[in-house]
Amino acid sequence: MTPPPARPTPTTPATLSTGTTPATPTTPTTPTTGVDYHAVFAALPAPKLVLGPDGTVLDVNAAFRAAFGEPAVLGRPLADVLPEPGRREVLASVRAAARTGRPQTVGPVPSPAAGGPRWWLLTTTPTTGPGRRVTALVLRAAEVTEVMPGPDGPTGRPGAGARAVVDALVEAVGIERAEAEVLHDSLLTELPAVPGLALDVRYRPAHARSPVGGDWYDAFVQPSGQAVLVVGDVTGHDVAAAARMRQLRGTLRTLGYAEDAGPAETLRRTERTLAGLGCAVTATVLVVAVAPGGRELRWASAGHLPPVLVRADGSAVPLRGAPELLLGVDPGAARSDRSAALGPGETLLAFTDGLVERRGESVARGLERLVATLPDIRRADGTLDLDELLVRCCPGDGDDDVTVLTARRLPADEGA
């Protein structure tokens, strides 16, 4: 088996190409791990392509060449490589993976072959770099011809029975993913308009393949006009964690609004309510209450990292005060409020531990990195570039959810 030519370096164009103009490959950087990953890729038994975010073919293994009979595919748009049946569906699936950063599956789709078509399920898996930007896509073809009955099958139509089964399976997986996304998106609500404050937020799940997890944020305005900001982290990064998070978030939101209480009292009542209802939820939670106009704030922490204050001159400092016991451990645990001033042009940044934790590194070191990074991602107008913050503090794929919520007190000339 002759291995394909050297793999070109991925580029990052904006849209998926559907034309016929070949791209110009470039020479890759030599790996430093001692493993020839290109040789490993070339020998994989399943047909695979590596694509740039624009759909240009960057690499192809021998199994793909054998299955689809395309000897010269490097540097060509995917649209030129795929057989006509099912091409539109496959291209749409690849575009979706490039746009969302999540795996996509399509099929069964046929490819012409002697003795009748071969049938394939095609899965596109994105690879990501800093800030979860899609840098390349791996298109894998899995043959399902053997489970596609011929004309003598029970339905009398080639492939009809098995295709219906496979279609139903693909549809069920898609529905499950969509339902999970709807569930989680419903909990990550739009931020309210608060006089004198500008709110901003970013949420990034731990795994691109699953949009659900235990992190959440919330922001609402109490009847007194006091703004309440919440970030929390329930143990886990899956649908079960999202379900527990939903219980906790809903309880805290309801009590925090209806009782019009301060942060510590809101945490106490939430914990007692969940315990009384038999809801076994353990989480870190930070609750911040900002007075009308944004001049003063109070905050309470149940095992959560303290918020960081970004001053008007760009310097940053964590607010002082050790976190108290996690929520859900002891309903009678002491909870106390701490207070701080929020001056014009200053920003309060609340976050979950995914922003500062890295393997083999202390949380204290992560906090130091965050504090040192904040002045660099502050824009000329005083706002923080949260996308750049994620790129710098969370490069590549992390293994924890990340939530960042900010509240900036507007200067007098921007409104109060």
From TrEMBL:
<feature type="compositionally biased region" description="Low complexity">
    <location>
        <begin position="12"/>
        <end position="32"/>
    </location>
</feature>
<feature type="region of interest" description="Disordered">
    <location>
        <begin position="1"/>
        <end position="32"/>
    </location>
</feature>
<feature type="compositionally biased region" description="Low complexity">
    <location>
        <begin position="106"/>
        <end position="118"/>
    </location>
</feature>
<dbReference type="InterPro" id="IPR035965">
    <property type="entry name" value="PAS-like_dom_sf"/>
</dbReference>
<dbReference type="InterPro" id="IPR000014">
    <property type="entry name" value="PAS"/>
</dbReference>
<dbReference type="InterPro" id="IPR001932">
    <property type="entry name" value="PPM-type_phosphatase-like_dom"/>
</dbReference>
<dbReference type="Pfam" id="PF07228">
    <property type="entry name" value="SpoIIE"/>
</dbReference>
<dbReference type="GO" id="GO:0016791">
    <property type="term" value="F:phosphatase activity"/>
</dbReference>
<feature type="region of interest" description="Disordered">
    <location>
        <begin position="99"/>
        <end position="118"/>
    </location>
</feature>
<feature type="domain" description="PPM-type phosphatase">
    <location>
        <begin position="200"/>
        <end position="416"/>
    </location>
</feature>
<dbReference type="InterPro" id="IPR036457">
    <property type="entry name" value="PPM-type-like_dom_sf"/>
</dbReference>
<keyword id="KW-0378">Hydrolase</keyword>
<dbReference type="InterPro" id="IPR052016">
    <property type="entry name" value="Bact_Sigma-Reg"/>
</dbReference>
<dbReference type="InterPro" id="IPR013656">
    <property type="entry name" value="PAS_4"/>
</dbReference>
<protein>
    <recommendedName>
        <fullName>PPM-type phosphatase domain-containing protein</fullName>
    </recommendedName>
</protein>
<feature type="compositionally biased region" description="Pro residues">
    <location>
        <begin position="1"/>
        <end position="11"/>
    </location>
</feature>
<dbReference type="Pfam" id="PF08448">
    <property type="entry name" value="PAS_4"/>
</dbReference>
